[in-house]
Structures are given as C-alpha cells and as structure tokens.
Predict the structure.
Amino acid sequence: MKLAPEKIEQIEVDCLLDVIYQRLGYDFRDYSPDSLRRRLNFLVEQERVDSIAELIPRVIHDELFASRLINSLLVNVTDMFRDPAFYKSFVDNVFPILKTFSFFKVWSAGCSTGEEAFSLAILLHEHGLLERARIYATDLSPQVIRKAKEGLFSADKIEQYTQGYRQAGGQRELSDYFFSCYDCAKLEERIKKHITFACHNLVSDSVFTEVEVIICRNVLIYFDRSLKRKVVSLFTSGLHPGGVLCLGSQESLNGLYDDESYEPISVTNRIYKRTHSIAQVASIYH
Ligand SMILES: C[S@@+](CC[C@H](N)C(=O)[O-])C[C@H]1O[C@@H](n2cnc3c(N)ncnc32)[C@H](O)[C@@H]1O
C-alpha cells in the first residue's frame, strides 16, 4: 500500500511519541501536531539523521539525546516582562481586584525558568501587594524549576529587561531588585521568598490548591484542542469564583469553556474573570 509522505511522517511521529511516553514518562500525544512536527524536523536536521523514525532508537538508548529532545519539545523560551502590555493591563485591571483581598494566591502555570513569576512579584511589590501574596510557579520540567529556584541571570540580561519593565509600568530601576554575584545578577530574597517553585504536569496532575489568579501564557499554544479544553477545565476547578485567568495575547478562551464561566477583563491580553455560577452563589450564601 502506497502512503503519502505526510501520512508516513505522522506514523513516525505517533510511534516516537509512544516511545517517549513509555521510555521517559513525558506525554506529548495531545500536543499540537503542527508544532511537534516542526520541532522534530528541526531535530532531524540538527542530529543529521534522515527521518523522525531514526530518532526512536536514540530516545531508547541515548540519555543525553533524550534530554535534548525533551528540552526541544518543551520550548522553555521566556523573558522577564515578556509582552509588557500584558503586565500593564494586569496592573491596571487586576491589581484593583487584588487590593480587595487581605491574602491571595497566584499560580503561574508553565513558568519555565521563573521570569514571569519574578516580573509579577516585582510589580506586586511596587504596588504594596507582595506581602499579601503567595505565588506558586510550576512547570513540567525539573530542569527549568531547578534554574528558577536560583533566580540567577547574566548581568546584561537585566539591562535587556529594563525596557520591558518600564513599558510594564515599573516605577524604579530594575537593577534595584538584584545584587551582583560575580558577573551575574541574583534576584533579592525579599522578592523571591514570596514564590514557591514546584514541578507540575498540566496534562496529568490535578490542581494542588484553590487560587485567586492563574497565569498561563505561551503554554496552551503547544496543546491540541482537546488538551486545551482539559487544561482550561482544570484551571476553572482551581480558580476561586471571581478569580482571574490570564492566557496572554497568543491564546484565547474561544470555544474552550462553557459560556457562563468567564467574562473578559482585557480582550487583547486575554485576561478573564471567572463568573459565579448559580450553584456557587448558593453555596456562598448557605
Ligand atoms: C514558552 S514557555 C512559557 C513560559 C512563560 N509562561 C512565558 O510566557 O514566558 C512554555 C513552558 O510550558 C511548559 N510546559 C509544557 N508542557 C507542560 C505541561 N504539560 N505541564 C506544565 N508545563 C508544561 C514548558 O516546560 C515551558 O517551560
């Protein structure tokens, strides 16, 4: 039977994902096929092999390659104050809500090396809200969580991040929050101590605690539609009624939730408020 090259490639991708799951425990089977194929074809070139199928034995027998492959599929790219317009909108629209709480919890899901949580903590500090906050920052990859816990950057990165910090509404010097450590800059403990980093898998783990804010930017774009729906439902179960879900400009809630669960706070930055369902209102008042 003759099969089209795309069909053959899809078979190879499916076999590879099964092997990754069985050998390494990472489940990419419901990630976006287009994005997976792009990354795998890039690896095929980089590793100088002829097909995705040739990566299969290497996943089984070559630990260093397996770790490179996982890093490449997870896409850990991040920055402090990435997309400053999002932070600006968060400060303008969500901080007034947070000011009404004496204590609140924020979950940064898919936090990579922690830059999103650090940025948010700095802005909360500048608005007198950090003392009331506990930020949980989680990622599937133990490697990025280890790095996040250090809060260590090359000194020139801080300079690069300064423009985003200003555009996000930062009021001081970004360098005020870091101390020099040889040729690196380390985030000060007074900011870092409000963040708890942990490994958490959005595909298979449950919600660990109820929170007032969930930020999950540049993560769902790598999932297929059914997995996006599953993760949004996980968020909905972990979000306090009246709480805020932030997906960032690259993602949208369209079609991923039942229409009554959320109302938009910022349409462009995809910031949503979880509405109270009738059942929730009844449980609050009884
Ligand atoms: C592109 S980064 C986004 C980082 C940050 N949120 C930002 O916008 O800068 C995507 C992150 O999602 C994480 N990720 C991918 N699949 C995940 C899963 N199933 N559970 C938790 N994190 C996951 C990756 O490890 C990666 O660090």
Notes: Residues 210 and 238 are 5 Å apart (CA to CA). The chain has two domains: 5-74, 84-285. DSSP finds twelve helices and ten strands in the chain.
